[in-house]
Amino acid sequence: MKRKLIAAIGVATMIVGIAACGSDKKDDDKKADGGSKPAASASSITVWLTVDAQHNWPELVKAADDAIVAKHPGLKVKHEYYAWPDKNAKLDAVLATDKAPDVVEMGNSEMVPYMAEGAFAQLDPSKFDNSSAWLDGLKQSVTYDGQTYGVPYYAAARIATWRKDIAADAGITATPKNWTELTADLDKIQAKEGPKFNAWYQPSRDWYAAMSFVYDAGGAIATNEGGQWKGSLESPQAIQGLTTWKNAIGKYMHGDLTKDESDRYIVYGQGKSALIYAPGWEGPSAADPKYDKTGGKLKDNLVNFVMPGPSGKNIPVFLGGSDLAVPSKSKNVDLASEWINDFTNSAGQKILMSKGNLPNNNTQLATLKADPASAVTAEAAESSWFVPTAPGWGSVEKAQTLQTMLQNIATGKSSVADAAKAADADMDKVLNVKN
User: Fold this and answer.
1) What is the spatial distance between Cα 352 and Cα 364, in angstroms, rounded to a whole number?
2) Span 173-186, pLDDT tens digits
């Protein structure tokens, strides 16, 4: 979900490399049966995941490895882990070679340009558990021209998490129910803890959080006008949302205003922040003894609640998440598919749910609202937004257009209006251009 500007050579060589193999009979066979037969001599598969899996649910990775090895004795599962900003540049480079991984994790908003270029093998959804109940937003992200090119991994809805001990020290005994209560509580916490403390630790480059304010105010990142996509961050509604976000950052965020959210849970574990607005797994991860630098205070003092929006309603969340895909150049499509199913089946989803994630399917999602431990996340997911489904949206993400805009606003480099105008202009150049 967090992306780095793609290397130019990666774009060119990826497209040329894929086109060169587009008429290969082996690729046609893959599309006909949902995956080619693995070579008899296959002794290993290579799986690329982001560091989220490495740090936060390594037991799920091991369970999937054990399951496929039990079916294929002697098989080796090789793992490579990447930070979000680095993954795609590496992927684009290897897709033009014969060294593509067999499984790769993708942010759900990253899938379209890769599917359009034939970078991923077509998969048979019937081979994957719960495929008939995949969450709509995730199902759309793995579907192109009516065919399936990936498997939803998990979803994430952002929620508010704060420390009840810090709130109590400021005289606060209950979680806020609306924006007015939230800002009043944060004012009390900020005054109590001092100017160097983050009443709300909110990295400026976290565009998923910032755009929730835009959508809460009735705005949008981009709109489709007569079949053409156009940036809409200059609209009065979007400006209102961005201004509210800027004001909150200015009052409550006293950390590095050039950071993204990739290490937010680690920073939160340092104990110098009261509130984060983040995917549900980040609070428990911060409380892990590896990251909790407060002497164990986080474990028993973290409280989740649905983030109230300035509009008076729950703030709409980006129902993001990850998908798993099999590069079309993989020589082990069937084995890769098996590993993916072992990783994303119902048992795997239970592990992900225990870490604060939403499952990839509606069947298991329904169980969350009845469980006090997960009801907040499930409720937050009921109001959501998704990225523009424009042909060139991938270029917007790769160029980090929104992140740049937000950093410029937060640091005072640009006014809200000027930064929004620049972002719209940059988006208008690429939104209607197929990646």
Assistant:
1) 11
2) 999 999 999 999 99
Domain 158-318+388-430: give its CATH code.
3.40.190.10
DSSP string, 15-74: HHHHHHTTT-HHHHHHHHHTSPPPPTT--EEEEEEEHHHHHH-HHHHHHHHHHHHHHSTT
Find where tokens 């008076």 sit: 312
Match 């069947």 to its residue by tokens.
Answer: 363
d(Cα 354, Cα 359) in Å, to the nearest integer?
A: 10
Burial of 73-107, coded b for 16+ CB within 10 Å and e otherwise, reads eebebebebbebeebbbbbbbbbbeeebbbbbbbb
Tens of pLDDT, residue by residue over 242-269, are 999 999 999 999 999 999 999 999 999 9
Nearest in space to 208 (alpha carbons), one of 244, 254, 158: 158
Domain with CATH 3.40.190.10 in the chain: 8-156+320-378, 158-318+388-430
Beta-carbon contacts of residue 411 (< 8 Å; ≥ 6 apart): 204, 257, 258
What is the pLDDT, as a whole number, of residue 137? 73
CA distance 315 to 305: 12
List phi, psi (to 5°) of 225. Answer: -120, 105
Q: Are 233 and 219 in contact (CB under 8 A)?
A: yes
Whether pLDDT at 4 is above 70: no
Say how far residue 255 (Cα) sits from the centre of its chain.
22
Residue 385's identity, in one-letter code, is W
CA distances from 350 to 12, 141, 152, 344, 418 (A): 40, 22, 14, 9, 45
User: Which superfamily is assigned to 8-156+320-378 in CATH?
Assistant: Periplasmic binding protein-like II (3.40.190.10)
pTM higher than 0.90, yes or no?
no
* CA-based nearest residue to 251, from 199, 295, 210, 298: 199
| Integer Cα distance of 60 and 70 in angstroms | 15
